[in-house]
Amino acid sequence: RALEQDYALKLEGDAQRWVLTLLPSEPAIAALLKRITVTGSRNQVRHIEYLQADGDSSEISIDPIDTP
User: Which of 10, 33, 55, 66 is deepest in the core (most CB within 10 A)?
Assistant: First the structure.
């Protein structure tokens, strides 16, 4: 619910491969940020991409931790 205050959320896919797209609905955020895309599998976030309003972007890939 906290994200929905400032972003329009779109969830696609299934538990094996999902994509959550966040589009800013708050004008102050939209002036800086165009989109955040989070991808994952089951309960693990695997990739985050930030697309700024000026066209710059950043990507983070997350490898799962092996558990004993």
Answer: 33
